[in-house]
Amino acid sequence: MSVFHRFLLWPVLSGLVVAMLILALNPGLLQPGQRQIDTPAIQGFADTVETCAPAVVNIYTRRIVPDPRPGSDGQRSQQSLGSGVIVDSDGHILTNLHVVAQATDILVILNDGRELRATMVGGDEDTDLAVLAINASGLVAMPFAKPEFSRVGDIVLAIGNPWGFGHSVSQGIISATGRYGLQLQRFENFIQTDAAINPGNSGGALVNTRGELLGINTAIHSRTGGFEGIGLATPADTAQRVLHDIVRHGRVVRAWLGVQVQGLSPALAKALGAPSADGLLVNRVVNDSPAAHAGLQTGDILLHVDGALIQDGQQTMQDIAWRHPGDTVALKIWREGTLLDVSITLGQEPAH
Question: Active site residue: 98, 126, 170, 289, which one?
Answer without folding.
Answer: 98
